[in-house]
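Lecture notes, unit on protein representations.

Consider one protein chain, 457 amino acids long.
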Amino acid sequence: MGHPETRGIDLVPDTERTGRPRRLFAVWAAPNVSYLSFAIGGSLILMGLTLPQAVGVILTGNLLWVCTGVIAASGPVAGTSGSVISRAFYGVLGNKAVLVVTGWLIAAAYLALNWSAASVAGIGLAVRSGLPDGSAVHAAVICLIAGATLLIAIYGYATIVRLYSALSVLLTVVFIVVTGYVLAEADWSYAPAAPLHGGALVAALGVAFTVIASTPLSYSNSPDLARYLPRGSGSAAIAGWTALGAYLPSVVFTSVGALAATSLDMSDPQAALESILPGWFIPVFVLSVVVNTLTNNGMTAYSASLSIQSVGVRIARIPAVLVIGVLGTGMTLYAILVWDFLTSVNTMLQLVVVVTGPAMAVAVTDLLMRRNRYDGPRLLQQERGGPFWYHRGVHFAGVLALLTGVSASLMCVTASFWTGPLAEATGGVDLAVPSGMAVAAAVYWTTARALASVPRP
């Protein structure tokens, strides 16, 4: 824990594989005991949903954490990162193109999203402490939070596992206290002023599901955090502890956010929550928001640095962390200084799901087809004619599945700046997640079978 991790995408030797799958629970719980969950839960009520409808969407949308858990099981088998394992889906060269989007741009966007949440809270605390409310202070807070996050990513896996176990407990305690104050203020008989019915209700439920599902679908990095487990670790245990560690806090605190919106104006989540907290506890809450962001983005930056190496950029893992950090910091500065926070949240979540949903479907389908039999040394071979070179470096089944899945998702998404033609034809019903994932999985399965490009184990 006391030394920066220098290992990148190279194989983890058996002598360094320790621990049991259950430690993944705390690793995934810490980033999901989240202020952002409060904000997202509140946004569901702002969409016009009733409390039971919002909780129903939260329970179902978060079930997609099962996908994150399933692909985590490939980490110990392959002994390398998820960004290398995905060469099996897309081919050596095709994988590089995919990672530029999923491993760099989307990772940087999630860094910016979470840093925005922490920065809003940190800026408020700084102003309350007497600092001027200006762009210079805003930029300083953002850079300070980004720097602390990148330090976690630089120290890497051992630090994440040990530190997150303690932080998951600390954050849970603080957020349970916040939950107590929310429950005391909640309007359990809440009903929207203008209840939604018919097509309008279905449309709102579709958008809400997409927003909730976008978080678990974005975590294709779960093999990175399981690859240090012993090779014989049970796949079901890895999948279960990963999914459960993320699912439980996500459901609980997103539901609390929805409850808060029954009596508070959650268009400004921080101000709303602070209005019901005692003055002495507000700094504790704000610092917990910042710490939660460090846990979330530390994990994201760690995996993004591995993706940079997998693309073929000749750079060590630690400098790669700094590269992704600069990109994410720039996007955060734009989001905070140009956009408002809640607009940034909903816009980004609805945008990235058109890519992350189909990508997750391809990964899960490939794992099921291979029965989770991945050969790490062969995956690391990049020479022409290698086992995952396929045709000119591209696995046609994977690239076709991803592109058709993204196209289907775009046709069915409803966002602030784009409504797909199929979504428009159905009155704005957002089916981006099920359509994109179903099409991607079906195309990958049928095409890979037809080409015999995924061998049957």
